[in-house]
Amino acid sequence: MAPVPSLPSPHIVLFPFMSKGHTIPVLHLSRLLLHRGATVTVFTTPANRPFISNYLSDTDISIIDLPYPENVDGIPPGIESTDKLPSMSLFVPFASATELMQPHFEEALKTLPRVAFMITDGFLGWTLDSATKFNIPRLVYYGMNNFAMAVSRDVSESRLLQKTESDTESFAVPHFPWIKLTRNDFSPPFTDREPSSPHFEWVMQGAIATTKSHGLVVNSFYELEPLYLDYWNREFQPKAWCVGPLCLSDPVRPPIKPTSKWMEWLDQKLSQGSSVLYVAFGSQAEISEEQFEEIKIGLEKSGVNFLWVVRMKEPDEAFEERVKDRGIVVREWVDQRGILEHKAVKGFLSHCGWNSVIESICAKVPILAWPFMAEQPLNARMVVEEIKVGLRVETCDGTVRGFVKWEGLEKTVRELMEGEMGKVVRKRVDEVGEKAVKAVEEGGSSWGTVNELIDELHAGN
Ligand code: UDP
Ligand code: UDP
C-alpha cells in the first residue's frame, strides 16, 4: 500500500503569561511539541527573553519578544514578570496592560508562516481576538488542574461563596458532596461579597474568552483525576485536553547549570544515608516576618535535614550557623526539578503551586501542604484528601489560612519524614508517580491526547 502522504509539520504559536509558574510548563510543552514534529514559535517580552532562550538554547524554537507597555500605573519600569512585582496587588494592572501588546502581536503574526493553532495563557484573553482575525484556533493554557477547575466552577455557579456567613463555615461542593470546603479555600476576587471589582471584571473577561476558545490545555494526566476531567468535558466548554505532566514530557532535559553547592550538599547527605526535606514556596508567595521566624524555629526543632529556598528575606547568619550541619538555605533560583529528583530528597514542604505539586508527584516525593494564595488551598485539598500523596501542615487555629506556630510545623514535618502517616503517603506517591510516567510514554493517555490535538487542529486547518 502506498504510504499516506503526511501533512507538513504544523507550526504552533505559544504565548505564556509572564510569571514563572505559567512560563515554565509552557516551555516544557514547547519542547514536547517540537519532539512530535511541530515547528514552534514562542512569544514573550524582552526582559523574559533571556530566561526563555537559556531554557530553549539547545532547540531551534523561535522566540519573538514584543515590547511590554511603558508607564503602566504602579509598575516600575523594566519589570515584566509577576515574580518581580513589588506586590501582588499590582497583578491586575500588570496583566491588563498586556492588552496594549495586541497590535505588536498581530504585526508579528503577519510575518509568520501559516500557524496551525496557538496556545496562549488564560491571562492573555485578548489573544483570542487576534486569533479570530487571523483565523487561527486558540487553545488556552490555565496552569490549573481539572479538580480545581471543576470545583471552582461548581462553587461559583451555585454562588456558595456569597451565601456562606463566615470564612470558616464548611459547605459541600454540589456535584462532589464528599468535598467539604470553606471560603478560606478560595481567594479574591472569587470571595468578594459584591463581585464587581476591577479584578473580578478582568477575570470574567478572561473566562469569557476562554469559553469561546477552541480548548484548554491542562498540565495533568487523566489517571490522576478522571472524575474531574470527565465532569468538565461533559458539563463545560471548551474541551480540556490533558497532556501532562509537562515536566516529564520534554524528552531531552534542558541544559542545567553546572553542579551547584546545594546539589553537592544533597550528594553528601545521600552518601551519609540521610534524607532531606525540601522547603520552597514558589516564586510568588509573600510570607510575613512573623511567619518566617516560626518556620526557622520549627525546622530547627524538628531535627530533620532540610534544603530551604528563600525569596526576598535577609540572611539570618546565627540561624544558618546553628543548623549548618543539617540545613542549607539557598537564595538563588534553583533547578527545582533536579532537587526533587535527587535521591536524598524524601519530602517537600510546599505552598502547593500546581507546578510544584505535579513535579513532586513525578519525582515520587510526598508533600507537606501549606497553601498561601490563588488556587493553592484547593490543590492542597487535592493532594491530601483526593490523591492522598501528602499531609497538611498544622495551623494554630485549625483553619486553612491560619498562622502556623513552630510546634505545628515541627510536628507535621516529623510526621511526614519519620511517622506512620508519612510512610502511607510515601507509598502512595510512588504509585501515582508511576502512573504519571506511564501517561506521557508512547501509548499513554497524555501521549495519545497530544496526538489527537495535533491531528484535529492540523488536519482541520
Ligand atoms: N525577568 C523579568 N522581569 C524583570 C527581571 C527579570 O521578567 O524585571 C526575568 C528574566 O527573564 C530573567 C529571569 O526573570 O532571566 C530571572 O531573573 P533573576 O534576576 O531572578 O535571575 P538572573 O538574572 O539571576 O538569571
Ligand atoms: N522554580 C524553580 N526554581 C526556583 C523557584 C521555582 O525551578 O528557585 C520553578 C518550580 O519548579 C515550578 C515553578 O518555578 O516549576 C513555580 O511554579 P508553582 O506553580 O509551583 O508556583 P508559583 O511560583 O506559580 O507560585
Quick recap:
It is built from 19 helices and 15 strands. It has helices at residues 20-35, 49-55, 91-96, 102-111, 127-133, 146-157, 160-163, 198-211, 226-235, 246-249, 261-271, 289-302, 317-322, 336-341, 354-362, 376-386, 406-418, 420-440, 445-459, and strands at 11-15, 39-44, 62-65, 117-121, 138-141, 171-173, 176-181, 215-218, 239-242, 276-280, 305-309, 327-330, 345-350, 367-369, 390-392. α2 links the parallel β2 and β3 (62-65).
What does this structure look like?
Helix 17 packs across helix 18. This protein is globular. Helix 9 links the parallel strand 8 and strand 9. The protein has a seven-stranded parallel β-sheet. A six-stranded parallel β-sheet has the order 12-11-10-13-14-15, sandwiched between helices. Strands 6-7 form a two-stranded antiparallel sheet. With 461 residues, it is an alpha/beta fold. The longest helix is centred in the last third of the chain and has 21 residues. It starts with 10 loop residues before the first strand and ends with a helix. The chain has 19 helices and 15 strands. It binds uridine-5'-diphosphate (2 copies). The site of one uridine-5'-diphosphate has 11 residues, from helix 2. It is an enzyme of class 2 (transferase). Its EC number is 2.4.1.-. InterPro entries: UDP_glucos_trans (IPR002213), UDP_glycos_trans_CS (IPR035595). It comes from Escallonia herrerae. One of its GO terms (molecular function) is UDP-glucosyltransferase activity.
Using the CA coordinates, give the radius of gyration: 22 Å
Count of separate DSSP helical elements? 19
- Main β-sheet, spatial strand arrangement: 3-2-1-4-5-8-9
Major beta-sheet overview:
7 strands, parallel
Number of strands: 15
Low-confidence stretches: none
Helix fraction by DSSP (H/I, runs of at least 4): 40-55%
CA(first)-CA(last) distance: 27 Å
Write down the overall mean pLDDT.
Answer: 94
Q: Tell me the strand percentage band.
A: 5-15%
Helix and strand content put the structural class at alpha/beta
Principal-axes shape call: globular
Oligomer: single chain
- What ligand molecules are bound, each kind once? uridine-5'-diphosphate
Pfam families: UDPGT (PF00201)
EC number: 2.4.1.-
Organism: Escallonia herrerae
GO molecular function: UDP-glucosyltransferase activity
